[in-house]
Amino acid sequence: MGKKAGKRVDDASMEKKKEKDRDKVARRRPAEQETLMVAVERCPPQSQLVFEWVVGNGLGDEAVPDAQKAYERAFELRLAAVEQKARAPLGDDSCAKGCEARHRSVVGPVFGPQSWQIDAKVSPPRATTWSWVGFVTVTDCAPCA
After folding, report:
1. Is 141 in contact with 99 (CB distance < 8 Å)?
2. Which of 7, 51, 56, 75 has the fewest Cβ atoms within 10 angstroms?
3. pLDDT band for position 32 (50/70/90)?
4. Looking at the domain assignment, is residue 111 inside a domain?
5. Is 131 domain-assigned?
6. What pLDDT does residue 112 have?
């Protein structure tokens, strides 16, 4: 038989070893927890511009007035659609990892300047006008409980 057979550990020495291990565990410091301010700073508010393009086209001798009328009709429809998108329920991806969305504010409407492209040299004359309309959403994020 080998050397290991001669080294038998008695019950008393095993108890001492277990007691030492328990003392080491008891003396260990608990893992440092993240302070509240660090957790809050890790979860800043998030903002997003939700927008839709608004386009109006006109053709012929009345291309410009037709384009403006089409733009005005489209503006109302796009405004309603983008507001619905902005006020939709919060998604899970609104905030950073380890944070949860608590409240969302919707600001707007906001819109860009109306631009024009009028091509009177072609037959029939064409006119196009466009801009964007949208809402800004601000989501209040907080550390997960």
Report:
1. yes
2. 7
3. low
4. yes
5. yes
6. 97
Tokens representing 23 are: 């003392």
Residues 52-76: what's their mean pLDDT? 97
Average pLDDT, the chain: 86
Total domains in the chain come to 1
Q: Pick from 74, 77, 62: which is nearest to 114 by CA?
A: 74
Q: Which residue segment(s) compose the domain that 88 sits in?
A: 36-143
Alpha-carbon separation of residue 73 from 55, 66, 125 (angstroms): 10, 11, 21
3-17 b/e (C-beta count within 10 Å ≥ 16 → b): eeeeeeeeeeeeeee
In a domain, 26, yes or no: no
Residue 56 near residue 128 (C-beta atoms within 8 A): yes
- The rounded distance, in Å, linking the Cα atoms of 50 and 115 is 20
Q: What is the pLDDT of residues 47-57, one digit of tens each?
A: 999 999 999 99
Would you say residue 78 lies in a domain? yes
**Cut 0.85: pTM above it:** no
Closest to 42 (Cα-Cα) out of 104, 96, 101, 91: 96
